[in-house]
Amino acid sequence: MSFLTSLTLLKRRPSGTERKSREWVKVGIPRFLNVWGTAPFWTAFFQSLGVGKVVFSSETSEEQYRTYGKGRVTMDSCYPVKALAGHIGELLHKDINLLVVPMIYSLPSFLKGYVQDTLSCTRVMMAPENIKAGFLREGDEFAKRGIRYVSPFVPFGEPELLPLYLYRALRSAIEDITMEEVKLAVEEGFKALREFDRKARELSLKIIRWCTTNNRPAVLILARPYHMDPGIGHEIDAEFQLLGYPVLWYNYLPLEDWLLNWLFGKDVEEGRIRHPLDISDVWTSSYSSNTNEIIWGAKFGSRLPWITAVIRLSSYECGMDQPTFTPVQRIVESSGTMFFKFGELDETKPSGSVRIRVETIAYYLQQYSQKIIEAKLKRLPPVPHQLVVY
Amino acid sequence: MRGQQDYLAYRPRPFRKEERSKVTLLYGGLTWKHERLLQGALENMGYRAKPLPQIERKDLDIGKEFVDVGACCPTTFTAGNLARTLETLKKEEGEDGVKENYVFVTVGACGPCRFGQYHESYERVLEGLNLREFRMYLLDLMRMEQAVEGGGLEINTPLTLGLFMGMFLGDLITDMEYSTRPYEKEQGKTDKVVEESIQILYEALKNRPLRGKKWGNLLWHLFTDYFTKALKEVKKLWDEVEVDRLQPKPKVKITGEFWLQTHEGEGNYNIKRWLEREGAEVIPPPVAVWMDYLIHMEIFKLEDAKPFVKGYFLKKTVATLVAYLYRRTYDRLRKALGNIPNPLPSQRELRRLAEPYFHYRLTGGEGHMLIGKALYALKHKQAHMICELSPYGCLPNTMSVGAMAKVLADYPHLLYAPIEVKGDAEVHALSRCQMVLTEAKKRAKEEFYQVLEMTGLTLERIREFEEDNPHIRRATYHVPRYGFVGTAANYVYHVAQLMRGRR
Questions:
Q1: Which runs of consecutive H residues, i.e. helices, occur in A54-145?
Q2: Which residues of B touch A154 (CB under 8 A)?
Q3: Where on the tree of life does the source sit, at the highest rank (chain B) (predicted)?
């Protein structure tokens, strides 16, 4: 934690709730599923509680799963869920005494207020209960190593209830913890998350400005947040970067009013949508947070001229992605933007075939990007001055 | 700029009130019994209604032609069923006939579970058949009052309550059916009585008097003897079904994903009938349990949010009253059938039993209920074995199946058969089930002979007693439970009590 952050924390802390030193608490958190996208919250949350350290498991890898996860999975599921076994197993071999595996029920989505709900996929939220069983059925593997296992129910979409569930879960492991402290820590967590989000979106805007100024194409990735994990998304995005194409992720696109009004203003004027973040024109069951954001990302990608190709990543057996395949592709392609899908991603990284496909896509990018940019620009009002950097 | 000029979410044309008399509502997804009763409730409100034809194996193949790859089997089967129906209607009445004379009504729930998104797959069917003009409406399962654009279909209190009654009655007759058929003396008699019962109840729903609009209607449904009278008439039919309960059969409780567990047909390999043919007594899952779960989830959420809810005590009282009246209504109807159908399990107990293994707020599909139900059946000696039906690729159920690993470690005595249903791998699924069923059969027999030994009775002696007391061989004769699982074991103990002049 930086010096400035420490000062802010102290300033905001109500009297009588001085931070307790909990140097003895060493927290381990698996780097899995929706922890991707919420990690800054967890770090700031536990720092605010004064724990000794917060350790994340490594990125997902075949080795991790083989070494620590095999034999712990008791059902068939998508790989991102099964991989949790490897993360938990790995953390059992780290210097921790409190293992926190959050059951993230809903997410703090930027689309909140414009969609029906911001829930996690049911498998994603339930994964901890499932994988935990594999570490308990033949004896308590956590207790054997002197580690307390805590799995809080985490409704980011219900911020008033979030401290309650976190407090309920943590009080069994940290006896002197108080509700007031948890409330404060949640505030700190959200603040850190907002700050991270702001910076990431700022970087995306920087990329878009660069593309605008240099008239260069970019690639937009539509996936789930955990496809940023190299072991889940197999670094397909990095392959495009290696070839010189800037990559944008749907969940960190810039949300500046002037930009959204440029792209979606006409739809709002015509009454097709209430707001640039409204997706009801193309998607009516807007319960799932990640799905909603993917759909909105597709709309954004179909409009922004310099996004000339959209890359869809999807894991094998993803039931949340399945109903979206046709709508997403059609939203993107209807504007002439190229659409490519890497589906059925699983445990093994098919490096060779990924590279061949990326090279093929790169050929199309090189061949058609300028035409796509021109065609998309023609359908929009003049480029906003904020987008051009001289 | 229009980023998605060619793609817009499906929006059905309005269905106008004046079209009601010529437009038929199509619906499906439940057993033929439930669907027929819902038809009665809809016709009672002035609608033309027709259930989709029963699911067939070929619907899976038809569905695969239309929906995006990777769909679960309930999505594929139901989408295929819809496609088959629309294609048939197109042949019979032409494209315009289908578009103008029919609408399809479906429900959504569960939020992030795929159940809430089935309609996306149905949209692919409409596109594939070039029937985007055909009207399909998605209704919210949890809303008492809603209407489609144009007012052609209005879900108001009388209709909602009629549908609820239809659901309850369908559940109760299904319970009667499955507790009777394995023991019927005259083969085929149960099925015949089921058909007759459903017809009586269909007529009752169709001719239901419409008293009051909202609160008046609600009160009428809560206190009327209209439905219990109809059920008493039905009970007379069941009185005539003679059963032989001296057959030790394993009781198999069906749990699982909503559609698969309630389904009776090729969508789940007809597994309930298959289990009966293999010598089991099946405990079917009532739709009412799932509705009860949804009501209780609202109560649980309310309790958690107590410090933040304005007027908490009033809201809690209302919600608790709704839950109480729901159960009371179900129990009143059960009573009219001699309490043969099973009572609804306590949702609080299901939650408590599942708590160490599955958090109650992890909703989607059946949530914690699958674990709760398995433990409930074990603790209450309700079944020898649990058969959980999960569709291949089901989002929530795979998670609770995984969590069951710890449950089985804690309760090694629990016989649990999780069956993954793909729709096209029948032999594999049934053989897995059979392995567990073999052990369940053994247990049922052991228990039966233990009770015979304990009571000192012989089969001959019991048969003689039955000859003198033929009423105990009626399907509607209620055999109390004495702490044994099997029907036969409880029956033997009961006869022993009767012989001693006690009950």
A1: 62-64, 79-82, 84-91, 122-134, 141-144
A2: none
A3: Bacteria
Contacts of A288 in chain B (CB under 8 A): 111-112
What part of A 71-100 touches B (C-beta under 8 Å)?
73-77, 81
Going along chain B from its start, the domains and CATH numbers come out as 17-155 (3.40.50), 162-448 (no CATH), 449-502 (no CATH)
- Nearest chain B Cα distance for residue A7, angstroms: 30
Length of chain A, in residues: 390
Helix axes B32-44, B157-180, angle to 10 degrees: 150
Interface predicted TM-score (ipTM) of this complex, two decimals: 0.92
Q: End-to-end CA distance of chain B: give it in Å, rounded.
A: 80
Question: A49 CB contacts (<8 Å, ≥6 apart)?
Answer: A19, A22, A25, A174, A177, A181, A182, A185
pLDDT score at A9: 41
Let me know: does B350 contact B294? Beta carbons within 8 Å.
no
The DSSP element (H or E) to which B297 belongs, if any, is helix B287-304
pLDDT tens profile A35-81: 999 999 999 999 999 999 999 999 999 999 999 998 899 888 899 99
What whole-number distance in Å separates Cα of residue B324 and Cα of residue B330? 10
Q: Quick one: closest CA in B to A77, which residue?
A: B398
Q: Taking the alpha carbons of B163, B165, B171, B173 in that order, is the dihedral positive or negative?
A: negative
Reduce the DSSP state of residue A60 to 3 states and report it.
coil
Residue A336 sits at the chain B interface (C-beta within 8 Å)? no
- Average confidence (pLDDT) over A153-175: 96
Closest Cα of chain B to A17: distance in Å? 21
CA distance A6 to chain B (A): 30
Q: Answer for the pair B212, B220: CB distance below 8 angstroms, yes or no.
A: yes
Secondary structure (3-state) at A26: strand
Q: Which of A268, A322, A335, A374 to mutate to test the interface with B (most CBs of B within 10 A)?
A: A322
**Structural tokens at position B71:** 């769909």
- Coil, strand, or helix at residue B15? coil
Sequence-distant (≥ 6) Cβ neighbours of residue A336 within 8 angstroms: A372, A375, A376
Which residues does A203 contact at the CB level (< 8 Å), separation at least 6?
A: A252
Nearest by CB: A122 against B6, B305, B365: B365
Does residue A372 carry a pLDDT above 90?
A: yes
Query: Chain A: nearest CA to B426, how far in angstroms?
Result: 18
Identify the CA nearest to B77 among candidates B98, B89, B62.
B62
A61 in reach of chain B (CB within 8 A): no
Name the pTM for this structure.
0.93
Whether B118 contacts A319, CB under 8 Å: no
- For residues A221 and A250, is the Cβ–Cβ distance under 8 A? yes
Residue of chain A whose Cα is closest to the Cα of B410: A137
How many CB contacts within 8 angstroms connect chain A with chain B?
188
Cβ within 8 Å of residue B28, ≥6 positions away = B35, B51, B52, B78, B81, B82
Instruction: Please report residues of B whose CB lies closer than 8 A to that of A287.
Output: 111-112, 116
Tell me the pLDDT band of B141, cut-offs 50, 70 and 90.
low
DSSP string, B43-96: HHTT-EEEEPPPP-HHHHHHHHHHSPTT--HHHHHHHHHHHHHHHHHHHHHHHH
d(CA B72, nearest CA chain A) in Å: 8
